[in-house]
Design the sequence.
């Protein structure tokens, strides 16, 4: 039995612009009704690529048939309130718009548990598993507690870092918390936007590829194609660019110059953003 992980991990959270102590946080705040959300990474006192995350939140709301009652400046204000009160130098911040029938919609912001890759993970790559799951609405980021529980349990049980989500055709358009990129003969392969949740980090990786003149092929990758790839890597808020050394029992090379160039270019973009 694994210990139940607390959703809100810092002393204070924000609900509708008001600071509250974590003891009053309960899962019904996000599990009841429908919750549309984003997670951004804190570095110092700044959330990385925050406006991109807010834009994606607004896109998810529109696709789900909702409208935001807060503008970008108001969301910034609520998040700054959270960061200043908790005084945490790093971490992941989740912000949620919840819509529950017969109640006013609510905005929540709080720190969630994070797992950043170690220096060894970046150097040697990580092992991932496959997990059968197909999103019916991949372009919107909707909280699915039952799916999150099942895939997290599977990752822990198999001592993996992540899970590639496989569809009925044996393809894996994305991972449970990350986007997926393959490398073959100097070319990057990644699924088209309409088949996935287009990640914020993925956006900047694709920009890095253009700047580095690395060709990109927009298509999904089949499981039986993994053995023929030169490399595979994940991108995401917590991981940035993370090489994969093994998918289930299939080994992959992690000594790939294309991946190394992309990692360095993304880090330059992050440093520029945080200046």
Sequence:
């Amino acid at each position: 039995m694994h210990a139940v992980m607390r959703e809100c991990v810092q002393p204070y959270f924000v609900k509708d612009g008001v600071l509250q102590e974590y003891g009053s946080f309960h899962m019904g705040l996000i599990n009841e009704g429908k919750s549309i959300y984003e997670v951004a990474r804190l570095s110092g006192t700044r959330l990385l690529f925050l406006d991109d995350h807010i834009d994606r939140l607004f896109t998810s709301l529109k696709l789900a048939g909702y409208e935001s009652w807060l503008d970008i400046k108001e969301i910034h204000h609520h998040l700054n309130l959270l960061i200043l009160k908790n005084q945490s130098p790093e971490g992941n911040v989740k912000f949620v718009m919840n819509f529950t029938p017969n109640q006013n919609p609510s905005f929540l912001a709080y720190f969630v548990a994070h797992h950043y890759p170690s220096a060894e993970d970046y150097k040697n790559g990580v092992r991932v598993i496959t997990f059968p799951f197909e999103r019916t609405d991949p372009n919107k980021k909707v909280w699915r507690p039952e799916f999150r529980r099942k895939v997290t349990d599977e990752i822990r049980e198999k001592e993996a870092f992540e899970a590639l989500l496989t569809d009925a055709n044996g393809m894996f358009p994305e991972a449970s918390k990350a986007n997926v990129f393959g490398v073959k003969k100097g070319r990057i392969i990644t699924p088209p936007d309409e088949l996935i949740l287009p990640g914020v980090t993925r956006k900047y990786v694709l920009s890095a590829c253009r700047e580095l003149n690395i060709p990109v092929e927009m298509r999904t990758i089949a499981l039986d194609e993994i053995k023929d790839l030169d490399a595979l890597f994940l991108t995401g808020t917590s991981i940035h660019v993370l090489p994969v050394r093994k998918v289930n029992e299939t080994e992959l090379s992690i000594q790939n110059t294309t991946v190394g160039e992309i990692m360095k270019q993304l880090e330059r973009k992050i440093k520029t953003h945080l200046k």
User: Anything to note?
Assistant: The domain at 119-274 is CATH 3.20.10.10 (D-amino Acid Aminotransferase; Chain A, domain 2). The chain has seven helices and 15 strands. The chain has a mean pLDDT of 94. Residues 257-274 form the longest helix (18 residues).
